[in-house]
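hey all, quick one before standup. I had two proteins in the batch that finished overnight and I want to keep them in one place so we stop losing track of which output belongs to which input. First protein below, input sequence then structure tokens straight from the run.
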Amino acid sequence: MVKIGVCGPVGSGKTALIEALTRLMSQDYSMGVITNDIYTKEDAEFMSKNSIMPKERIIGVETGGCPHTAIREDASMNLEAVEEMHTRFPDIEIMLIESGGDNLAATFSPELADFTIFVIDVAEGDKIPRKGGPGITRSDLLLINKIDLAPYVGADLGVMERDAKKMRGEKPFIFTNIRTKEGLKEVIAWIKRNALLED
């Protein structure tokens, strides 16, 4: 089982990404989803209603206080959820773990996630990639989402591309519009090639 952590600021498209990936990949792979919210299980409930995944394959974790702690310093609640899911469905190949809404500093504990996808959106401005932070610089894959909004918020995708290359070096990034599925084929190809070690 490969565990893929999905993190990024509130509203960047984390839940939409997970919903889209399960919709596009769950016919070919056994999947499970764990969501993290501070005081509710809202994302898990959204996934249960809107995903093609059976609700038994979705677990919501209420982190309380600081969501960063639940995915990094003390990942015990999430590790228990992973174990519970794996006990329910021993055949799970891909476990998607969504962090609570957080900032550019969020990272996953290596024992919780084998790979990390960090999602930002252009509505935050084209300066976001150059601000850095562990999510931008250390994630295995960076998604720059909601590219359709660029002209409306004055964001220059060329600047974002240049800064992402500068901050990430050789690490990949993909421009996406998850709502219209733009870039999702490339995201899935990256998962298959890097996380699942397929050709």
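OK second protein, same deal, sequence then tokens:
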Amino acid sequence: MKVPYKTAVRLFAIYLCVLLVITTTAGLANEKLARKEAEETVVILQYTNPMFYELLKENATKENKTVVQYYYEKLIEVRGLNKNVIIQGIQLLRQSWEEIKPIKTVKLGRAVLITLGVLLSSMLLIIFTSITVGMKIATKPSLLDFVESLARFFNGIPSWWIAVLFVFIFAIKYNILPASGLMSIPPEEGVGLAFDILKHLILPVATIVFVFVWEFIVIVARETQREFGEVYIITEIAKGMPNKVIYWKHILKNIGITLSSFTGQKFMEMFTDYLVLDAFFSLQGLGLLLKSSFVREVVPNVGVVVNFRPYLFFPLTIIIATLFFLISLVIELIKGMLDPRVS
């Protein structure tokens, strides 16, 4: 197997660009948060410490600045924040990691493992089902047309809508599966805990599989049809080679090339859907943590206020970008293994 260096370099370049965008955005957020803090502090000082406010106003007037602008610049200076946006972003990210570590409710390692477990399980089930079903319906045009209609239908349906439907049927109406959470409370022990976690993951995994599997089945079926028209397959059939051997020895390898490419294309969409489903099912993965970075509070005389937590949001976006880069790289390596031309 040759390593597809050009593809790896291209993916790494995209990854670096994404990191730069995240860092720049973090810097802008850091600057805005400091400015907001300066505005709020100045308003508070007007009532709690008028003498200090007058001193700030006097110094600000000497420098021909507003009180807020003067206090903001002093705040930046005291905290050692560089005025460069990228440097501010790096400082915010560094500070974020330090603030997240002592928080017991934020378990990044566990969240990453849950995310990878659900995504990889879903992908393996989708690929296995699509190969098994797609090869069988390749010779049945009417059934293939029906599956194509299903693929178009589910391509336009939000994954959370399917999740709501599954929860209503299997958790509420028939009470077969748990509606949310990663495990029962109180948690079981030993082998019982493992089965309990698997039981809680059935609906999230089933939702992802049910939404995406139809497109994969169509891809496999169409590729199988195309392969049956190739001269070497016709020759093998003429020699009397069994269909099972033709399917698994010749057709599957060529289908694998197309399937790996299509998996790479759909992975980002699958990842995005997973983040929504993770928050919906409360799986304690990256999606739920991402939701936690926006805290909704009800403030008297004001209403509902959504507070942004940058110290949680930006590290999560970097982790998500890194996971996407690594999994995309693995998919490209698999493509290189199946098709040397990729290298």
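Flagging for whoever picks this up: The CA atoms of residues 100 and 106 lie 7 Å apart. The chain has a mean pLDDT of 86.
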